[in-house]
Amino acid sequence: MPSVTQSAVRFRFPFRLRTFRHAFWVLVVFIFFNSLWGQEQSAIDSLPEPTLTGALIRSALVPGWGQIYQERLVQGAVLYSAAAVYYYRTIFHWYHYQKTGSQNHLNLLRANASASLFIYLLNLIDVTDAGLRGEAHGWHGGLLDDRPLKSPWGAALRSAALPGWGQIYVETYWKAAGYFLLDAYLGYQIAVNDRKYRDTREVKYREERSRFSWYFGLAYLITVADAYAGAYLYKFDQAMQMTLTIEPKQFLGVRFYVPF
Question: What is the largest CA-CA distance in the chain?
């Protein structure tokens, strides 16, 4: 009969191994994208930069948000996605452990909770490091510049992370509410029909789940694309008014300049 010490070692070793493995791959992916995109963030003009305090508060609330605020979009996407996955898995195994008391769910809960903590701390360290080293310049555009006032990919990433967030970023608030409610409704229908199918195994619920999944995918893509386009069109009417000039020469003419 194994001793208590041997039993503890047998249960704790897989937990530590899983934790190391998850943390290792998150770190590898993050370092890869950080080095791949680090050079591109250097060509920025001299407009005001995002503050370190603002970035830290955002990353403390939602991992990756501070990086998005700093316009380090790839790093933000990696950290946000990793945090979303491991936070969900932590909650999932916690729920099933509370329900069943399974030792396997307990081990997986510990592993995923540790990986979540690692991602959270990595997120805070990264956003602080970028701010202190002067790499967080944010997005800088102009009304009549080649770059729009709002970041198109920043808007798209925000709506990809949370439908409607990109529309809030480009200040089309009624669209933000509409897209959020639409995507939330379709996601709810997917969850309801999935639960009914798992309980009853009736084909009609599986078909309804598939149908709403297609609708959700289409609505999600439209939400992201609209945020991207909205960043380009932000204050476009003001730009049109400013680029309308009248030049009296041999005759009175009107010249239009439309920046793209």
Answer: 105
